[in-house]
Description:
By secondary structure, this protein is of the alpha/beta class. The chain has helices at about 20-30, 55-65, 80-85, 100-110, 155-165, 185-195, 215-230; strands spanning about 10-15, 35-40, 70-75, 90-95, 115-120, 140, 175-180, 195-200. Strand 4, helix 4 and strand 5 (about 115-120) form a beta-alpha-beta unit.
Amino acid sequence: MPLKSKPYYLAASLVCADMLHLADEMENLEAGQIDFIHFDVMDGSFVPRYGLHPEMLQAVKKATKIPVAVHMMVQNPEPYIEIFAKVGADYFAVHVEACPHLHRTIHLIRQAGMKPGVALNPATSLSSLEYVLDDIDIIVLMAINPGIVGHKLIGSMMKKISQVKQLVKDRPNFLIQVDGGVTPESAPEMIQAGANMLVCGSSTIFRPQEAPVDQKITQLRQTINQVLKK
């Protein structure tokens, strides 16, 4: 299903949701009109924690039509391509640092029926995209070191966002996603720098002590839009 063109998209980081009440969380995400589900897969090796699994995605896809972008933070993502395609992933992003044969991996993702993407750790140069940029639909820019909960935004990533925007300035439908460090304060700045998709987690929408998820989504959009109108 083609995306409705928007100035920016908000993606809910499902790993931050209440896993004991996931059905309720999905209803709230629908009510808040979230644009994407961000689905982290982690192996405890590429990053120092574990993440979500395909069976969970299969259940999520039965409950919602919200597009799902899978973020593979694993050492070897190729064996998982067909698995996640079968359970309904729409986008599938792999880390350049984990793919010695990146062009082949991207081709396999596209062949499986998903839109391919590449994720970059903070210190990874954009030069690694030179020979694959025309073959992908989304770039995931890590604005913190991946897999570490509670890390603050690395300030130099704003410049990196702007540089990616220049690289894809002739591709209006290309997705520039920022993962990590997204707060109500940093979100507008990220979009002004060139991002058009923000991964929202426990610093933004998953804050049950403050308000339900749908209300937090609305509040975040209002905050961003107020700054962008100035």
